[in-house]
Amino acid sequence: MAANRTLISVIGDEDTITGLLLAGIGHINEQQKKNFLIVDSKTQVSTIEAAFQEYTERKDIAILLINQHIAEKIRPTVDKYQQAFPALLEIPSKDHPYDPSKDSILKRVQKLSGD
Questions:
Q1: What is the rounded distance in angstroms from the CA atom of residue 90 to the CA atom of residue 69?
Q2: What residues pair up with 63 in beta bridges, in sequence order?
Q3: What does the alpha-carbon distance between residue 113 and residue 115 come to, in Å, rounded to a whole number?
Q4: Where are the beta strands (DSSP E) in 39-80?
Q5: How far apart are CA 54 and CA 43, in angstroms?
Q6: Phi–psi pair at 98, nearest 5 degrees
Q7: Which listed site, 56, 73, 75, 112, has its alpha carbon 20 to 30 Å from 11?
Q8: How many other CB atoms are there within 10 angstroms of residue 80's CB atom?
Q9: Cα–Cα distance between 59 and 10 in angstroms, integer?
Q10: Nearest-angstrom CA–CA distance, 56 and 41
C-alpha cells in the first residue's frame, strides 16, 4: 500500500512553497490537482481544511508538510488525524519559529512514551 505513495504534499506560506517547489516537489496529476496549497492572509480556513482532507485521502501522497502556524488555524482537524500515511509533519516558516508545545504529533509521541 505504501509503495504507491511517492509524493510530498505541502500546505504552507508562499516562501515555504516556493522553496520546496524549487527543490522539485511540485506535481500536477491527470485530474489537474496540485500537491501543494499556498496560504496567505486571504485564504479561508475552509479552503485549508479542504486541502488537508484532500491530501490526507489521496493514495499517492506519502508525506504531508504543513507550516505550524497554518496548522494552528485548523488545529482540531490536525489533532484528529491519526493515520500513518500520509505522514503529517508540522514545519516552521520564515516568520514563525517551530514551537514543540503546539505539535500534535510530538504531543502524541510524548504521551505514548510517558513523558
A1: 9
A2: 8, 87
A3: 6
A4: 61-67
A5: 16
A6: -70, 135
A7: 112
A8: 9
A9: 15
A10: 23
In order of their start, the domains of the chain are 2-113 (3.40.50.10580)
Instruction: Extract the C-alpha cell encoding 47.
Output: 479552503
Going by C-beta distance under 8 Å and a sequence separation of 6 or more, which residues neighbour residue 25?
7, 8, 10, 35, 36
Q: In the chain, what are the helix, strand and coil shares in percent, each to the nearest 5?
A: 45, 20, 35
Q: Which residue has the higher pLDDT, 3 or 49?
A: 49
* 4-8, 51-55, 73-77, 86-90, range with the lowest pLDDT: 4-8
Among the residue ranges 77-81, 97-101, 103-107, the one predicted with the least confidence is 103-107
